[in-house]
Amino acid sequence: MNLINWYEKNKTQAADWQSEAGNPPPKAVVIADDTTKADEAYRLACEGTALLYRGDFQNAKQLLQAITRRVDRKPVKPAATMLEAFHQHRARQIGRANITNKVLIELKYGQCDLPRAPDVKAAVQGALIVDEKTEKLPARLVLSLRELLGMVGAHEWRKKGVPIDALNTNIHAHYGVYSPVRGEYLELIDQAPLNNPQVAWDIGTGTGVIAATLVTRGVKQVIATDNSPRALACAAENVQRLNMHSNIQVLQSDLFPEGQADLIVCNPPWLPAKANAPIEHAVYDPESKMLKGFLNGVKAHLNPGGEAWLVMSDLAEHIGLRAPNDLQSWFAEAGLNVVEQLQVAPKHAKATDQSDPLYAARVKEVTSLYRLICN
Prior knowledge:
Layout: E1 2-8, E2 11-17, E3 29-32, H1 38-46, E4 50-53, H2 57-72, H3 82-100, E5 103-107, H4 121-128, E6 141-144, H5 145-160, E7 162-164, E8 169-171, H6 184-191, E9 199-203, H7 209-216, E10 221-226, H8 229-241, E11 248-252, E12 261-266, H9 289-298, E13 302-313, H10 315-319, H11 326-333, E14 336-344, H12 359-362, E15 367-374
Parallel strand pairs: 2-6, 3-4, 4-5, 9-10, 9-12, 10-11, 12-13
Antiparallel strand pairs: 1-2, 5-6, 7-8, 13-15, 14-15
Helix pairs in contact: 1-2, 4-5
């Protein structure tokens, strides 16, 4: 980890620095407490100065909320096109994070010793420690309060889980692993015709929910791949909890494992744009790298008579990030034909939120499952 330095108690202090987005530690750090005014904190944060909080934890949260409200008051420029609206929205998200992440908290062995602070150690450990046998929390760790609250929220969701109708049980997402809250794509996985595949692959498995759904539908052997250590640990834990360890093998791979399969399923990120944090790689696929990698490689890994299932939203087309005919062109270039296209409308909250800057695109969005075969 990088070190963050600041001046306190008449000497220079140092601690390990944590940033999920990979941001460097702030160069300018001042001490803040319960007497710090919101306007002054906002001014400092806008100038790039971070505030290491030494007062009451609940007051630190209130200060963060006050800074966030001031950020959100900035007027939004009218956008001429949906693509312009998207780029403005992303720029606003980045700017908002840059400012609100300036309120910092210090942890000692994963615990916060500020008055009225909750017990955050389990949440921090769950977020930062993938291999509990070899990794330990540092003695002194500084991170943004916003990130710490995200860890706490993710920990609660991890314990609670997300109900999955196809499994008749819950899937539990780890911190940094995209939760299957958009259940409509799982409806497609559960409904698509199966031609009695003996071996199936789930590419980019994440929580392992697609692999588990395939087993529930009768597939005897599934290989689930991912290149994220967090996702691999998460999928393995869900597989164990579901008692599917004899049916599902979790493997680390950028895309495909070795060999061939009867069915290969992939639900890649839907938007070809830059990801600004690791969790965003589940949504943003720069230059459609994963999508193209899957399409161009799947033919070599399908058994004769096998199928590939691609689950893909058309939100990128409605925004203007991808041309309407791009996907069909890429199918043809990869030597793949569409046997069937199953569709479902999104049911998540943003699809009906007219205040969302991308509402005009979201209201038209459709998620499809393309059944593909080799030509």
